[in-house]
């Protein structure tokens, strides 16, 4: 019989690309991961990995097995959630990931509601870029997360992750009537590799120019402070634009950012996840 733990490692290899990356995520040594995958090959009765020097790639049989691994691991998550539903109520650690503006604006309200309604829960919050959330959820480092997606940027969740919409907010441009009018300005953007940076670059490209990026800043409060100091223009979402510094004009754009709640597939009916999603929605409404 195929071992689900080994299937998890194979799925991670399909997602992460290298045994070293899988080992780091699973807190194993690379040799231990290789041994587990070799054992899975014996269980499957077919070669799963093609080794070329120090690199590995998945065989056609491995790709077939990864497809079934998604279903197997999802069903195990569903079983875990069903067992948890038989308890008196959600309790224990609840590891929540969120991007900074949601952490600042939404999570204090949501955490207060969780504390009042489910005192046995122990929420534990970590700030994380949405691009890293899927891997953290699959690895069990997070139970639930708030992620966002922008126009010009595709969704960041993968086949093992479920994401349900939470709310949508407009995007604003500082101190210019349109992105095209800011073609000659210096720009303030998030660090390369983040969704915010990708969105801003692509928005400028859609307006017909490559932006001159002067500052790389992730915190939107700091971005607005830099804009107030005349250090450049920036795109900011509605959550970050509620109280701009004096002198900063914000122009609404026909662009939006959508926030979603993400969790492992099959895990959505877990009482702790249901409680968290309800608290997030209440915080948005309030």
Automatic annotation (TrEMBL):
GO cellular component assignments: protein-DNA complex
The answer to whether the entry has keyword DNA-binding is yes
In terms of Pfam families, this protein maps to: HTH_1, LysR_substrate
Q: Out of the domains of life, which is the source? A: Bacteria
Q: Which GO terms describe its molecular function?
A: DNA binding; DNA-binding transcription factor activity
Q: Which residues form a coiled coil?
A: none
Which UniProt keywords are listed? DNA-binding, Transcription, Transcription regulation
Q: Which residue ranges does the record assign to the HTH lysR-type domain? A: 2-59
- Which InterPro entries does this entry report, sorted A to Z? ArsR-like_HTH, LysR_HTH_N, LysR_subst-bd, WH-like_DNA-bd_sf, WH_DNA-bd_sf
Matching PANTHER family, A to Z?
LYSR SUBSTRATE-BINDING, TRANSCRIPTIONAL DUAL REGULATOR HCAR-RELATED
Give the family per the record. Belongs to the LysR transcriptional regulatory family.
Would you tell me the protein name for this molecule?
A: DNA-binding transcriptional LysR family regulator
What are the leading ranks of the lineage? Answer: Bacteria, Bacillati, Actinomycetota, Actinomycetes, Streptosporangiales
């Amino acid at each position: 019989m195929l071992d689900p733990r080994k299937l998890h490692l194979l799925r991670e290899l399909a997602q992460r690309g290298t045994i070293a990356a899988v080992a780091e995520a699973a807190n194993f040594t690379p040799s231990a991961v290789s041994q587990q995958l070799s054992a899975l090959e014996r269980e499957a009765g077919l070669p799963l990995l093609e080794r070329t020097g120090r690199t590995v790639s998945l065989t056609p049989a491995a790709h077939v097995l990864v497809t079934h691994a998604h279903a197997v691991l999802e069903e195990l998550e569903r079983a875990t959630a069903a067992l948890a539903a038989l308890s008196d109520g959600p309790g224990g650690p609840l590891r929540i990931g969120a991007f900074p503006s949601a952490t600042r604006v939404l999570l204090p309200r949501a955490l207060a509601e969780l504390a009042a309604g489910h005192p046995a829960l122990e929420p534990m919050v970590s700030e994380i870029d949405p691009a890293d959330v899927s891997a953290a959820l699959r690895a069990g480092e997070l139970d639930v997360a708030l992620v966002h997606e922008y126009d010009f940027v595709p969704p960041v969740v993968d086949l093992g992750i479920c994401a349900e919409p939470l709310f949508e907010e407009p995007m604003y441009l500082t101190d210019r009537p349109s992105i095209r009018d800011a073609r000659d300005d210096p720009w303030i953007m998030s660090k390369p590799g983040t969704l915010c940076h990708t969105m801003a670059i692509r928005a400028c490209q859609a307006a017909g120019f490559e932006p001159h990026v002067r500052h790389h800043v992730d915190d939107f409060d700091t971005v607005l402070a830099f804009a107030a100091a005349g250090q450049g223009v920036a795109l900011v979402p509605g959550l970050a634009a509620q109280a701009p510094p004096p002198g900063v004009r914000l122009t609404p754009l026909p662009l939006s950012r959508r926030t979603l709640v993400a969790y492992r597939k099959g895990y959505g009916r877990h009482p702790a996840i249901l409680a968290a999603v309800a608290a997030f929605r209440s915080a948005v409404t309030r």
